[in-house]
Amino acid sequence: MDNEAAIRLGFFFGILVLVALGELLSPRRALTTSKAGRWMSNLGVVAVDTFTVRLLFPIIAVQVAGAAQEKGWGLLNVLNLPDGLSFLLAILALDLIVYLQHVMFHAVPLLWRVHHSVTIRETNSNFGFNFPWWDRLFGTYRAQPVAGHEGMTIGLAQFRDSARRHLLWMLSMPFTEKAGNYSLNRHGADPESILKK
Asked: Is pTM beyond 0.90 here?
């Protein structure tokens, strides 16, 4: 685990470069905001978040996992399953936890970040990271945006102006802005009914 930080950063930047190249070479929709500004603000949030977590909780997750394995804590240590099955169950459990974390980001205004869609039902949907099963199981799955991927407006309606897209505002938003009608307990109109009007 001595190289844990380097491995994480390597994967993060490797995937980031691949996604950025995909966005540059084959964009899905017309650009509505400055790509450089958006990338700098979002990467700034990632940097501040990473630094804060490392400062407050240095490698705590890795230490807890090591202690659990050493002391035999946890369901997978007790069940003594084959390594392949234990690995699969651990990946599924981790993905479920990431799903639940994303749901909490929508349920607790202090944890909010600007993303998803201006349509409330689309904002409060598709929380899964790797697998769509959790969204299907818990009723938060949406197959397609009501206006299609090219016509979908990403972000939250109350935060669309350019003055609210810089790093300092994004960092202060959870403490200064109201959640509006987007909190998880609000579902809004069914997107399909909006199209029929």
From this structure: no
